[in-house]
Amino acid sequence: MSTRTGCDPTSIGRRMASARELRGLTQRQLAERIPCSKSLIAQVESGHKPASQALIAGAARALRVGLDELTGQPYRDESRHDRVHSTVPELRRALLAWDLPDEDVRPRGVTDLRKDVARASQLGQKARYVQLGEMLPALLDELTAAAHVSSAPAPLQALLSEAYTGATAIAYTLGYFDLRALAMDRVQRAAEASQDPLRTARTQWQRSTLFLASGAYAKGTAVLDRVRRDLGDDVGRLDAPALSVLGATHLRSAVFAARTPDAAAAWAHIDEAREITRLLGVDANHYGLEFGPSNVSMHEVAVAVEMYDGTGAVERARRTRLPNTVAPVRLGHYYIDLARGFLYHGDRARALEALQKARQVAPQQTRNHPMVHETVRMLNDLERRRPESLANFATWLRIP
Questions:
Q1: Which of 85, 86, 107, 352 is least crowded, fewest Cβ atoms below 10 Å from its Cβ?
Q2: In which element (H, E) is residue 102 found?
Q3: What digits encode the pLDDT tens for the residues 15-57?
Q4: pTM of the model
Q5: Residues 400, 314: one domain?
Q6: Does a structural domain hold residue 282?
Q7: pLDDT, tens digit, 9 for 90 and up, residues 187-205
Q8: At which of 195, 223, 255 does a domain end?
Q9: For 162, what's the count of Cα atoms within 13 Å in the CB-facing half-sphere?
């Protein structure tokens, strides 16, 4: 006999209901605090509708709990050796020691350090978080020591900022939200010390994700608006790196608007980003942003999904042709969003296919993403005769 998702104590809906009941709130009272409809709360808690990232963030803020209390992250299986999680303690230590260089470390020259930071960035783009987590602590120690003794530390601070960004990626992927905030502070400090205004602007774009996760949409939108004001509105005078930063802020603002939800503002930001790609011409990777036509197309799908518009997401995906140069970490996110779009559209088979594609291109990212877990639980609940492929996927996720 099928078990409703809402009866599963590990589901987001059931966790939400437990937190709400603990605080003595009715479903209507919680809906008013988020705000959203009371029927949406009821459907998610009962397992009839999947929780969106916007709902999770809003509920966490309204209930005054951490996101991890609703998502159940980090997802760990104590019965097996989980290499990616085992890298976190040393990574945390390296972040805490940002101003305490190890005297025993003899740093190499800037050229060698730059090569290692580039390699770390490539591991992040490929969503290879085990290898990245094993590499970063020693690299951060060496960069910290080098910057401390250098008479011209700005280039080393730029490298530190980029390396710290790898730590934010690991923390975000695994669901260590306190570690993510700590790493983001380090990114910002190093960016400011690099004396590179565009790197600092890129850091503010990255900082906005903290507000996105916490449901503080007005604050996040204000951060992105400020970046655009600082860059200026004469796009014809901006060089390619500045255009990438500007375009990335519009894509992030589109997601903020979609979660509000403000469809008109969301699509207006998408249009602005697409116009900037016309000036830029190609997919680029300035400051690791990977801004370009492909990223705009992927965000079109994401924006539709954020507004529960599954049919719109599927239609936009049908018009999307992504080159094989798209980084696995971006492609993984795209397929995870597309799976949710197919689920909302009512095409459960295609939803599972999209999840399998995400697993193929970015397995570590896919296995640890809460929306993957939520989608699989919903598919499991909706299918009367569960296909073996779905059962195997759930087992791989370590869902009972």
A1: 86
A2: none
A3: 999 999 999 999 999 999 999 999 999 999 998 899 999 999 9
A4: 0.93
A5: yes
A6: no
A7: 999 999 999 999 999 999 9
A8: 195
A9: 27
